[in-house]
Amino acid sequence: MNEQNPVTTGRTATWAIEQLVQALAERGIAADDPPVRLATPDEVPAAALAAVPESYAVLRADDEIVVVSNDEPGLRCGVLELADRVAAGEDLACTTPFAEQPAVPVRGVVRSFSSVDEDSSWFHDKQFWTDYLTWLAASRFNRFHLALGMQYNYGADRHGATDNYLCFAYPFLFDVDGYDVRAEGVGADEQKRNLEMLRFIAAESKRRGLKFQLGLWNHAYDYGRDSVHRYPITGIGPDNHAAYCKAGIAQLLAECPDIDGLTFRVHYEGGIPDDRHEIFWRAVFEGANSAGRQLEIDMHAKGVDQALLDAVDLPNLSPVLSAKYWAEHVGLPYHQASIRAKEAAKPIPAGHEMKGITEFSRRFTRYGYGDFLREDRTVDLMFRVWPGTQKLLAWGDPAIAAGYGRLSTFGGSRGVDLCEPLFFKGRHGSGEPGMRDPYIREDLKLPGSREWTKYRYGYLLWGRLLYNPDAEPETWRRHLRSTYGEAAADVEDALSPLSRILPLVTVVHGVGGSNNGYWPEVYLNLPISSQVHSDHYAGDTDPPANWGGVSPFDPTTFYAIDEYVAALAGGELSAKYTPLEVAAWIEQLVADGARALDRAKQTADQSDAQVRRVLIDLEVLVRLGRFFAGKFRAAVDYSTYRTTGEVGSLESALRRYRTARDAYAEIPVIVDGVYQPDLRFGIEASEHGHWADRVPAIDADLAALAEELQEAADPRAAAALPAAPARPATPGVDHSVPTSFERGEPVTLSLQVVDPAVVGATLHYRHVDQSESWRQVPMELSGQTLSGTIDGDYTASTYPLMYFFSVLHQDGGQALHPGLAADLSNQPYVVLGSATVSE
User: Fold this and answer.
1) Which residue, 148, 172, 384, 737, has fewest beta-carbon neighbours within 10 Å?
2) Residues 774/816, Cβ–Cβ less than 8 Å
């Protein structure tokens, strides 16, 4: 090893070699002088290495294995790959050359400190951090984000705040010079202990090649409303708030030199009203800038306006906007083709200045990338995957993870932060000491801050497939074999389709954008019957709040249920995917997963606790899939009845819904005595509870449908809906994507007809700007070519274009092109950049 080369002798490279030596030792191989040399390309001229950070190559030079990279994180990736192979029993002597480069520049994990009762133990547990951060590094993540104060939303939480430990972080870490600001009940020794632990976490992250991002999500010192703070903040008020925070940031960065970046929630929910927010934030940014080193300033994109972008424009700061990927949930890998109509911009009403930008004038920034992806933007953008969809059950789908690896750089964005499993456990003061582990069955418990180990496979898939979405399956199958033995292949085959169900449900059933108002995994019932009112969901979905009226999170690609039935009744069905197609997809995923689960139960060693944990979760996912598929079908039947008066449809709705209900009711039996009876991720109805709590509301909805059936009119008085034309098996067209377009010039897009059944098509297009609506152009047929043109006035913009086609067949069936692939993990539209950027 070259002792003079800082890349090959730095702390990350040295740590990676230590991991390889340890892996060899665990296989009984002494390695005082490991048979691996680290090098940079200038030392190995023959190395074929991509000029991309974190790229690496593993070469053979005589009897020596050489890991080559331009940087330490790349060396880390190569050495840890060898360590993983050694741990799986492979002989390093048999290593053949290989190379990889990352697809996604930012691959992060977010962990939230949400409860002083449930999170203090892991926060102060050095062994936890050693094991956890090592697994993140081995999984190819390159960023760790510790989020403080993310659990409270100033001005939005109905009951203010109770457990405010580390929310307004500074007084929990140190006394700021020149200010007498205190967190009551937190003494100097506790401050010192907290700060020392923060330093340790940052240093250990950096040692493993993980950039350390500290999230300071709240700058509210008093949450108002009926807040009863456990740790009241004293000595601060409106007159000194900004100055104190400016000094606090500067002191924090001096005390903790391994902080690489800071994440701020800069809209009103972070404690600073939208009106004139740039004044406060300019002070904070100036405090960060005074540290005198380069820092990434990650601003949560919701509510960001030009005034904030101007405020962060300081020489030592590199601003990044972090947008939500699918609202506050985990959806399919593509980015929604359009946001819900509910997210459109609105005038700011008088008296609403506190939240005017976020909730009104720039409301479209709440749940997606908004208008931030101009080609001439001066601020980078990345995404954050929030934890609303699934917080508890095991997850593992290589197709979904690889899809995120291909699409997290959408529009030139930088990558993604993933909110990890058990996120927000104990939120809003709902935590209890010793209850971080959700298991109550003794043989399944994960004591000693080890609850994260249940999810090792999920971390591995996300990290490795964000790095390389084309990674060989052996990348994750080594881990599966070591964990599940003979059942490894069956567990993989069960987890993959079953893990796809809840992301699909999330995309199509967009009943609530907030993670604390919608939890599909432990679903709080939204009624089908128009006779049952849902107070819970009424605030974040358009009236009436029942299944038929719910907008998908992507209303361009998917039909809402009532919308679909109305289109069918009016003979105006488009190419959008229908609720019945979604139900069929879920049914197929359940069938595939259930078959593999049956095999796994036969082959698995059920004396192993982790095997038992994952088998139980798979049983739950099967029932959730059956429930949602049945409910989609029942809701279509009910909407058909409401549209036509056909009683047979109401009878069918009731029959399907009862079957779905019975599937859901099996879950409490499966998990009885397994999980906590009240799984607390907060205090709102959708943030806590148990599957057993949800069944009575389903039964009430069923009873209302049964009552409607008793009162229904004569079935002979109604006419049935026309049958929907079948979607063609293939679109029947080919399309060659242009390399780019010229701004201000018309863009003609063409389809080659390869199926004589194709009789027409429509081009759908818009800018990569979610504040805009889609436009349509009928395509003209000439010979075997269909063509449509986007005019030059529209392309005279600094935004990329996005487009797709709806293709009409002679029997009336329509197809989307490119549409969704069978694994639901591709992008159903094309994004096209301008030649200005390509040059």
Assistant:
1) 737
2) no
